[in-house]
Design a protein that fits this description.
6 strands, 6-stranded parallel β-sheet, 10 helices, about 220 residues, about 50% helix, single chain, alpha/beta
């Protein structure tokens, strides 16, 4: 008889007490084992690539890199890892983009612990699991596809997203060029294309766009 192994789970949340609570909850009973933890978005991507968990639980609002971008990067690099978002946000403007980025589950943080365990098991089995708010938003999107705007952020290239995040962090063109090992002219061209694609007018508009879409660290 084959012995079932625990589900390998990773947790990314910038609040230590939340991570500790989730670790205790998930490992109780031996169904899951937490193989990695991260306190910011960049660390979440790095730890996910190292640990290759079965299920990754990500907060949306994290320092250094937003949960949305972290989910996108992990999903692109590790398509077999199932990603669930656990957040305080239940607005449609957060739910639709994160599902497009690769999340297969979405729960708000007032979810019952039993539902969280069920969600992890469901994702591990290959299915999706969405709480009531997310399920309603997705059903609305399916029945009224024009009721939600397109996702221009999702249309950015990986390099344009890197430039976008450096711009909203307040870095200058020279600093961006140095960090990304490109010329200042190339950095400026990327910045101009990002502004055009996101339909804003300047850096202040990029910051406001990031705030509205939960992309600020």
């Amino acid at each position: 008889m084959t012995e079932l192994r625990p589900i390998r789970v990773m947790i990314a949340d910038d609040h230590t007490i939340v991570r500790e609570g989730l670790v205790s909850l998930l490992q109780e009973g031996g169904v899951c084992t937490v193989v990695a933890q991260a306190a910011d978005g960049l660390e979440a991507v790095k730890k996910a690539l190292e640990a290759r968990p079965d299920v990754a639980i990500f907060d949306l609002t994290m320092p250094k890199l937003s949960g949305l971008e972290a989910v996108r990067r992990v999903h692109e690099a590790l398509p077999a890892t199932r990603i669930m978002v656990l957040t305080v946000h239940d607005e449609d403007e957060y739910i639709i983009p994160i599902v497009r980025a690769g999340a297969s589950g979405y729960l708000v943080k007032d979810t019952a612990s039993a539902d969280l365990i069920t969600a992890v098991k469901t994702l591990y089995s290959g299915q999706a699991y969405f709480g009531p708010q997310a399920a309603r938003a997705l059903a609305d999107q399916y029945s009224k596809p024009d009721s939600h705007p397109e996702d221009p952020y999702g249309a950015l290239t990986p390099r344009e997203r890197e430039v976008f995040h450096q711009v909203i962090e307040g870095k200058t063109t020279k600093e961006i060029a140095r960090d990304l090992d490109i010329s200042p002219k190339t950095a400026e061209n990327h910045r101009a294309r990002v502004i055009d694609k996101l339909k804003v007018h300047n850096t202040a508009g990029l910051v406001r766009y990031a705030a509205r879409h939960g992309l600020l660290s």
